[in-house]
Structures are given as C-alpha cells and as structure tokens.
Amino acid sequence: MIKEGVEKISDGKTLLVHKALYALVLALSLGTAIYSNYPAFQSEYIRTDDDRANIFWFHRLLDPELLKDDLLTDYAVFYEATGTKYLYTLAAYFVNPFLLAKIIPILFYAVAGAALYKMGRAIHGPWCGFILAFTFICYPGHLEYFNCGYSRIFAYPGLVLFLYFLTARQTKHLIWLIPLLSLFYPVAFLICAVAYFLWAVLRTTIARINVEPKKIILHFLAPMIISACFILPKYALPDQRYGRLLTYEETVRNSGAYKNGRNEILPRVPVYKKAIGALNEPFIILSFLVIFFFLGRESLKIPMEFWLFIVSGLLLYELAYYFLLHLYFPYKYFRYTFPMAVFFVISLGFGRIVERIPSLWGKILSLVLLIGVSHYFHGDAIKPAAGMRDYGDEAPLYEYLKTLPKDSLIAAPPYLADGIPLFSARKVLFNFELASPWFTKYHEMIRERTEDFFFAYYSDRVEDIAGFVKKYGVDYIIVDSKLFRYLNRDRFYIDPYNDFIKKQAAGEKKFFLRENLDRLAQYRFDRYYVIDTARLLKDGGGRN
After folding, report:
1. Do 335 and 463 lie in a common domain?
2. What is the pLDDT of residues 93-119, one digit of tens each?
C-alpha cells in the first residue's frame, strides 16, 4: 500500500528534508552498529555465545591442517546454511573470514536502516520513513542478532527488504531476494514464501491491483522454483554421517527438547501467550495509547503486507510444532515476525502523527520527544558488545592450547570445551554448543562420548581413564577442579546426561584425576589442569 505522490519528491524543500533524514538514518545505523560491535575488533575474546558453534570452522579455511578429520567441525559445516558456507569459503581467498564476520553485521545494519526508511517514506512520507528506521535501529531486541557473522545475520535485512519490495509492489526484486534467503537463512525464506503466497492469492482474487495476474504468478513461481533447487538437496535428503532428523514422537520423548535440555522447544507455548509476552512492554503499551488517541480508528490502517507478514509467522509457528525439527525451532518464526511487525505498526502510527504536523520545527520537536522517550525505555540496551561476552578470563589457557600440536584432540568439560575450537583452533571430543540431539547418528555419537568422558572423569581407576583415552585417541585431558566440589548437587549437566553423571559422581570415591592432578598436569591455569595422556598412560594407565 503506497501513498500516492510520496515516492515522487516534487519540491525542493521536501527533497532537502528527504536527503537530510536519509543521511541521518545511515549515520545512526552505522553509528549504532559500530558502537555495538567495536569491542569485537579490539579483542578476539569478545564474542557472542553462538560464535563458538558457528564460526570456529573458519580456522580450517585459513589452515587446512587445523580441525582436520574432526566430527564437531564437520557437523558445524554441515548444518551451516549453504550460502553462508560458500560465502566465507570463497572470501577466505581474499580476506580473513573472522574479520569479515565482524564487518558484515555493520554493513547489514545500515542496509536494514536504509530499506526501512525507504519503505516508510513510500507509505507515508520521509518523516514516517525516519521513524520506522529509527525505531528499528534503537530497539534493543535487534542489536543482538546483528552482532554475529553467521546465518542469522541475514534474517532481519532479508525480511526488511522483502517487506519493502512487497509493499512497494516491486516484486521483480523478489526473484533474486527469496532464493538468496533460502541459501543464507531458510527460516526467513519460509516466512517470506508463506507471506508472498498469501499476497499473490489476494492480489489475484479479492484485493486485485493494477498488475497483470500472470505477472504476479510468474514473479511468485520463479523464486520458489529456484529456491526449491537450492533447499531440497540439503534438507530433503539425510546425510548418512549424521543420520536422519528425529521424528515427532522421538522428539517428544527426548529430554533434550525440554527445560534443562540442550534446546528447550517443548512443551508447546500457545501463540497467544507469546503475543501477550511480546506486547507486555511499557514502551509498546504507551505507544499504542498515544497513537490511538491521535489517530483513532486510523491506527489500524496499515499495509496489508504487514498483516500477511504476521500471519505467516504465526502460521509457521504452529506448523513447526506439528513438524517438529523439520521446520526448525518454532520460536524462530515468532521472533522474526511478530515483535518486528508490532514495532513497524507503532512506527507507522507515529509517522502519520508527525506527517500531520504542519510546521517543520513542529516535526523536529516531535522527533526529539520521540527519541527522548525511546532512549528512556531502551537507551541502556544500546551499549558496546551488546549480546556479547568477554571470554578473556580464560585467555591464558586458550593461548597455551594454541601451542599444542595442530592435530591434538582434547577432552574437556563441555562448557570449557565450547571455546577451545574457536579460540585455540584445536579439536575437542565434545562440547555443549554442538550437543544438539536432533540427528539420530550424531546424537548417539555425542551421547557415547559424553558419557564415556564423565565415566572416566569421575572414576577411581586409572584403567578406566586409559581405556577412554585409547578408545578415542585423546591427546590431552583438561580437568576443572571445580567439578569435584559439591558432588551432592542436583545439576551437573544438561539432560539427558545429568542423571548418568550424577550417579557416576556419587559415593566416597578417590577420583583418580582429582588425586593426581599436580603430579600429572603439564600446565595449570587457575582451576584448569592440562594433562598429556601419553604421560598418563606411561604412568601405568596402560594396564588392562
């Protein structure tokens, strides 16, 4: 739904306002993104949690001898979106992929801001465009999803561009955008595909527009066929190395899908509760009250495309519970549609109000007021390293592990092992980040490795540890002495492993590793002890 005459800027004053607001949007977008991301350029240890699972395989691009023949690295590459995988693989010939992963979020934030400005301007004018972009830029829920360089970074820019092209009826651009989303972030692709299908049906039947129905159908079918060619080879056929996805019944029985598991996706949360939770924010409630006060019934006059976008997300949210795992995690579809659409509706409402103010200074003062209120509610969320953590506390340990042979296999407690592939570029037997239990064979391998590790860790017999070392070819074991304290606690690790570990740690055992830490360790940092397994085997562990 485009406001007639807005897209074509006729007079010089309006053109000047447009240029000034557009420049301000770009400056705010880049400034916010740089401000939020610059700590990551200062330290390699400032990262998002998911970086440890999604980009560590870049080391292999820089040096093929690193992380070679490694189950976890191969799995991380396997589940990465096809487009992201090949983007970094090709880019590695020209630029360090770790550096590129820090630059892309900044550029994409500017792309999202620019597209939102253009969409708002096309609907209600330049002031509306500015408010739409500003609200998105400063809303803290989005920043976290731009502070990364892997697949999800493509979600918001892609969805924003989709809404802009669809609302502006520039569907020819969807012929390339939708296939790109299928390559880089399939969740966003599905959201767009469903919304686009509903739009095409309505625009060729009930809500027809001045566009040939054949053209609408062609512009819809072309990207869908191309996307199917991209998606089907990866997701329709299981990879024999990792097995098939769990069935619905298997997922429901899997404790890893519930609270205290690796990914809490069950039990099902009714969509109305998700919606209430998203709307139950002071800024949102206040905004709707103000908009309704000034606009009345016109508050709900928003582009049909926005409603279809919301419907698409909610529909896929429900379907994802019926096709568990096969449509990925249900909450993703809600997260990327409903909250974003709510802020779009709020922005368009404020945009209409500002556009009605006759004087330029009145418009400027209203924007200043809106910016002040937004800062009051959300300003503290715009900060350096939003959504990131500083893992520098363990830096001496990671730096030492870098000195170990490149083909070393390290067995370490899972939470500590999360950072080793990324920060030290060394293989680990298993970790928490890559413990998702959704593929049958992969889950069995990770489960066996996890239970074998903790069986040896809490054993009082050196033979058990030696057997574990020989079974997997482990070169180094890292012991966290903290894990030998408070052995009567209820939680040791995630389900389905917790009960096994709790049982193994019970009793008054003289755990071999705990009793021999100082004698066996070749390096110690704080509570962490690095043990060379060759020395352990020589110490008598080879006895059967």
Report:
1. no
2. 999 999 999 999 899 989 999 999 999
